[in-house]
Amino acid sequence: MTITLTHYLVLSAILFTIGLAGVIRRKNLLMLFFATEIMLNAANIAFVSISSFINDLSGQMFALFIIAIAASEVAVGLGLLILIYKKYGTLDLDKLSTMRG
Fold first, then answer.
1. How many domains does the chain fold into?
2. Containing domain of residue 72, as a range?
3. pTM for this entry
């Protein structure tokens, strides 16, 4: 049995669904970042597999740009999370929703 484009797209859809469920259900900001990373990686799998299927490198280059943007997002986001944790002592969204000032 050979792995076809459909297999990659189904894997990508499953990963994207897991990430979306994580974004919807999580109350911890750190887990929210992990869920968005899963969603971005699912998009990368789709871009690379379609790009390979049509023999064009543009999807693979786009995936590299997404990886670079995701890395910078994580760096800035984790820095902000550390500051929020130091100030409020929690990363729970329910407790942070009452922030003022």
1. 1
2. 5-96
3. 0.83
